[in-house]
Specification:
Layout: E1 8-10, E2 15-17, H1 20-24, E3 34-39, E4 42-47, H2 55-63, E5 69-72, H3 76-92, H4 99-120, H5 125-142, H6 146-155, H7 161-179, H8 185-197, H9 217-223, H10 226-234, H11 242-250, H12 269-284, H13 295-304, H14 311-321
Helix pairs in contact: 3-4, 3-6, 4-5, 4-7, 5-7, 5-8, 7-8, 7-12, 8-11, 8-12, 10-11, 11-12
The structure holds fe (ii) ion (2 copies).
């Protein structure tokens, strides 16, 4: 196909940037059309559904300075499935992937999580995106230590749930931190990192909690230790501060002391933020035997046990997620 008319189109449709690195990992036929962005309003279709990608042609475009490859927004779900598949493959065999590829997959998972969050609630895409940028910076920082990054990705499991939950908890934590008046960039990064890594201790359990509907008493006991395992895994890791360790340790503690692992009254604000974001994220995702809950029902449940939360924070969170609820 030539890269000229008649496949040129103006931006009457919505396009989303994609990563060539992701495409490269798939050698089969494309399941969507691929475009290059020539300007903000000018896109050209360069490959169509059913084609295999010709990398020589890709190189030619890149040499001409055309670096943004995109797809139609309506096809984004198909791309997301590719990203999820790669995430699982990386968790199973991290040795075959470079750190750069792993970072790209994580970043693309961040992008698809943005889409999910925007689709499911009333939060503006712009604010979710700016929160996600902070998460991306954290992923970049972690990638400086390749071994740590691989260990973490592996720990996040092969099923993809934990990656998604970790990223969405991180994004909700940033949004909530900002909504409650935290503007310090270093603190926001610690909160993002704490949100991203909060459940890393799950990898140390003898069973996969996300695959089970019910736990035995012994499994419950073990589950209640995952914050401790997480803290132990991260202790001494470059770039992980004490505040991040505290967030990981305390993310299941409650304001009234009814949480775990220590039953302490949760009062450390960054951990309060991540704890709330964590619960919201977990309830809004699908679990075995339970459908995702709607934001309205989640907040109703939170309000029903308000003694467990910092109420001001709960108000900020509900204003953020359900800004139009009183209309
Ligand atoms: Fe947890
Ligand atoms: Fe969690």
């Amino acid at each position: 196909m030539s890269d000229k008319q008649p496949d040129d189109s103006t931006a009457t449709q919505e396009y989303i940037d994609i990563s060539l690195m992701i495409l490269k990992r798939f050698s089969g036929r494309l399941v969507f059309d691929v475009f290059i962005r020539r300007s903000a309003t000018h896109y050209t279709k360069v490959f169509q559904k059913g084609d295999t990608v010709c990398w020589n042609r890709v190189e030619t475009y890149r040499e001409k300075g055309l670096r943004h490859f995109c797809l139609l927004a309506e096809d984004f779900d198909k791309y997301t499935i590719m990203v999820k598949y790669l995430g699982r493959t990386i968790a199973q065999s991290s040795g075959k992937f470079s750190a750069a590829e792993t970072v790209v997959v994580l970043k693309e998972t961040v992008n698809s999580t943005i889409q999910d969050i925007v689709d499911s609630g009333e939060i503006s895409e712009q604010s979710v995106e700016s929160a996600a940028n902070i998460v991306t910076v954290c992923v970049d920082n972690l990638s400086r230590d390749t071994e740590v990054l691989f260990r973490l990705i592996k720990a996040m499991g092969e099923k993809g749930y934990l990656q998604k939950h970790s990223i969405s908890t991180s994004i909700f934590s940033i949004l909530l931190a900002k909504a409650s008046g935290i503007n310090s960039a270093p603190l926001l990064q610690k909160i993002a990192l704490g949100g991203f890594l909060h459940d890393i201790g799950i990898s140390q359990l003898s069973f996969m909690p996300y695959e089970k509907e019910n736990f035995t008493d012994k499994e419950n006991e073990e589950m209640e230790r995952h914050p401790i395992f997480g803290r132990e895994m991260l202790e001494g890791v470059k770039g992980i501060s004490n505040d991040v360790l505290e967030i990981v340790l305390q993310h299941h503690e409650k304001a009234d002391g009814s949480g775990y692992p220590n039953g302490n009254k949760l009062s450390f604000p960054p951990a309060q933020i991540v704890a709330l974001a964590n619960e919201f994220s977990a309830l809004s995702l699908r679990h075995p035997g339970r459908d995702p809950m709607k934001p309205k029902d989640i907040f109703e449940a939170f309000r029903g046990r308000s003694q467990e939360y910092n109420e001001t924070l709960l108000d900020h969170f509900e204003n953020l997620i359900r800004p139009n609820r009183n209309r």
